[in-house]
Design goal:
Layout (H helix, E strand, L loop, with lengths): L15 E9 L3 E8 L4 E8 L7 H16 L8 E6 L5 E6 L3 E3 H7 L6 H23 L2 E2 L8 E4 L4 E3 L6 E2 L40 H4 L6 H17 L9 H10 L5 H4 L6 H10 L11 H13 L6 E4 L4 E3 L7 E7 L2 E7 L2 E8 L4 E2 L13 E4 L3 E7 H8 L6 H41 L1 E2 L4 E5 H12 L3 H9 L4 E4 L4 E5 L6
Antiparallel strand pairs: 1-2, 2-3, 3-5, 4-5, 6-8, 7-10, 8-9, 11-18, 12-17, 13-16, 13-18, 14-15, 14-17, 19-20, 20-22, 21-22
């Protein structure tokens, strides 16, 4: 058989020693080989023998080698040689990349709930975006971007693999008005490697609707597939699923996927969900128009403060309790809470907290116990700030740590002294005002017992002592021999207990 004009000349397969399989593709396999003259290990991709006589298969195989070889980028594997084996099989050799795929990384799920792991995966994603943007600038669209085509080598290097169905596109690099030196050279192959209308190629689970419908692909189709990879990062699965390949393809053609915020079974950053959804818009014009724009939004998320985990508390739940060990602080997202101290067995109110209000922050810097209790007045959602998160964000684990911890200790000491004085003073004032009011306005209830209506007394105490209704109620209720029945609006006091 006369090989096609696109076949490479020469037979150099004898220069390699086979060292076992690496993996398989739809039309070929990848094997580990030793380059005998240079004594280096490489990967060799071979076209299967059953496709060796198919003109289109041979053409696409050669084009893959030629396109990949011209994409000289740190995150695209370099191709070393293209040749024909003695049996007529086509092959090309490239850098051997031991490691795992992004698919393997995501399957472990370590990045769900672990911000350090999530940011490591996002850095891999950003690196993939850089490689794809470079290819677009050189006039190439990948058309099969998915986690399984991203290799993470043993030392952390990231490579975008399998350019087997990549095709040439129009120039999408710098503006045509830019100086010629700034316009990257376009990739070229003898046959042109143009997309064939009506032919669907790629992986439907990550495929753009126009690609799944056979309408062809452009750089925005790769943007969609990158959004689908980000979707997988967030949710833990591909956006398009089905019982059969045809069902998956139909869903891809319709752009029929569940919103990542709803599909995830764990907490996910809302901002990244929005990024993925924008990249995966059904209308290409509504997506990010370039990979760089998508990458910039992901990087903006990574530069910003790390989102904090949230906890939900029912009404009446004590979120922090006075005297307990302090290991975190909270910031209220939704709901209200009350703060109080316990003195002499009674609760003394301090105040109320609403959305965006932090509490428990002093415990982040020292080892002293909580100085007050906080109770949810209604269903409450709060962000949790750990000591480790704060130290990482502000750098408090270094030289400033001892100073900050000493300041926290001083705060605890001063807070304890001032709180005791304030609470004791307020209690005394309220007790004296109550006795005077009861002696003046109370009704004789037999013996030394006197009763008054509680509501007007409470208003009087708030005016006279500068306290709030809750503090007045708690203080009077804790007085010895005082019996306060708030629902019945009655206060009864045995006056002889006070020497009356």
């Amino acid at each position: 058989m006369t090989p096609p004009a696109t076949d490479p000349p020469g037979t150099q397969a004898a220069d390699y020693l086979d060292d076992g399989p690496v993996g398989r593709g739809s039309q070929g396999e990848v094997r580990r080989v030793v380059d005998v003259p240079l004594q280096r290990r490489l990967a060799m991709k071979l076209l299967d023998r059953e496709h060796a006589h198919e003109e289109r298969s041979r053409k696409m195989f050669v084009e893959e080698a030629q396109i990949t070889a011209q994409l000289d980028h740190p995150n695209i594997p370099p191709v070393h040689r293209l040749g024909v084996a003695p049996d007529g099989a086509l092959y090309f050799t490239m850098k051997l990349l031991p490691g795992s795929t992004l698919e393997d990384e995501l399957a472990r799920g370590a990045h769900h709930g672990d911000w350090g792991e999530l940011f490591r995966v996002l850095q891999i994603f950003v690196t993939v975006c850089n490689a794809v943007a470079f290819a677009h600038a050189r006039g190439v669209v990948h058309r099969d971007l998915k986690p399984d085509n991203v290799m993470v080598a043993e030392r952390g290097q990231v490579y975008v693999m399998d350019w087997g169905i990549a095709r040439l596109i129009g120039q999408v690099g710098p503006s045509p008005f830019a100086p010629a030196a700034q316009v990257p050279p376009r990739v070229s192959v003898p046959t042109g490697a143009l997309s064939e209308p009506g032919i669907i190629s790629g992986t439907p689970s990550y495929m753009a609707p126009e690609q799944a419908s056979g309408r062809g692909a452009d750089p925005r189709s790769d943007v969609f597939s990158l959004g689908a990879i980000l979707y997988h990062v967030l949710v833990g699965k591909a956006p398009f699923e089905g019982d059969t390949p045809v069902e998956v393809l139909i869903r891809a053609a319709r752009g029929d996927y569940e919103h990542p915020w709803l599909a995830a079974r764990h907490s996910v950053p809302e901002f990244l969900c929005d990024v993925a959804v924008r990249a995966m818009q059904r209308d290409p014009a509504a997506r990010y128009q370039t990979v760089d724009a998508l990458r910039e939004d992901v990087e903006a998320f990574m530069r910003g403060p790390k989102p904090l985990p949230e906890r939900t508390f029912p009404a009446g739940a004590v979120i922090v309790r006075e005297g307990d060990a302090a290991d975190c602080a909270y910031v209220i997202v939704r709901g209200r809470a009350r703060v109080y101290k316990t003195v002499g067995g009674r609760e003394v109110p301090i105040g109320e907290l609403g959305p965006r209000t932090p509490f428990g922050e002093a415990g982040l810097f020292g080892t002293a116990p909580r100085v007050a209790s906080v109770e949810a007045l209604e269903p409450l959602v709060a962000s949790v700030v750990t000591r480790e998160a704060l130290e990482q964000e502000l750098g408090l684990a270094g030289m400033l740590a001892p100073l900050v911890r000493q300041l926290a200790a001083n705060f605890h000491a001063v807070d304890a002294e001032l709180s005791a004085r304030r609470i004791d003073g307020a209690s005394v004032r309220i007790a004296r005002a109550t006795l005077l009011y009861v002696a003046t306005h109370g009704a004789d209830a037999g013996g030394s017992q006197r009763t008054v209506a509680w509501a007007p007394l409470r208003e009087h105490l708030c005016r006279a002592c500068g306290c709030d209704p809750r503090e007045a109620t708690l203080s009077v209720g804790s007085m010895p021999e005082a019996k306060l029945d708030v629902p019945s609006n009655v206060l009864r006091i045995a006056m002889n207990h006070y020497g009356a």
